[in-house]
What we know:
Alpha-Beta Plaits, 2 domains, about 60% helix, rod-shaped
Amino acid sequence: MLPIAGFSNAYKRAPATPRAGRRVLVNAYIVANSLVMIGVVLAMVPQEDMSRWIAAAVTLAMLTAAILASVNAILDGAVEEGRAANERCDLALARVQRLYRQLRELARTDELSGCGNEQRVLEEAERFVALRKRTGFRFALLLIRLESETGEGRAATEFVRLAGQLLESSIREVDVIGRLGDGSFALLASDATLEDAGSVAHRLMVIAREMNVPGGDKVRLSVGIAASDAHENRATLIEQARRALTIASSRGGDCVVERFDDTTD
């Protein structure tokens, strides 16, 4: 009997060998053992009985061929199963990654306005500040407050939705807009100076005046602006813009205040 059971051990003894190389090892193991067994069996057959000697040799050779064919068929099946398993894993991984991106985007989106939310603004502001310090990238932060006499309930909800659509449609793809709460939004204007941001704010003010809100109320837009520099961090930038917005709102709205300093009154 051929020691065929040992071929699995031969296969396992070279785990670092590529699959094709291990197949060669298995086949070589089977052939070597078969040749040994052929020699043993033929040695037991009287040489005077040549017909039996030839028949035994042919039988053992055919048996070896059959074993090789079976083993290679098993290995082929294992290879195909492995390939199919890898493809299934790749598909599953792609689905997981797609779902993760969708969930991450949902987590950074304000459901009411359709814009980004505060988390997205903070993350992007941190990225912009780091890019500014590393490359000199310019940007500005605009804190925007839209107000109207829409009251509460459905009218207020519709106002926020319309405000989000207005702002989202009025910015460039490279800019980032996010809702902070009620009618308050933050806009990160990419590659923009303080003067550029002021122009954007005045343009938004003109557009806001033409908004059709429930009840036909007039929309007031206040904007506080802070431009980045290499010495600022995110917290300082936001605080400067917030103080500028407070001043703009205190003046009755429809007002733009650029970067706050102690002389701003």
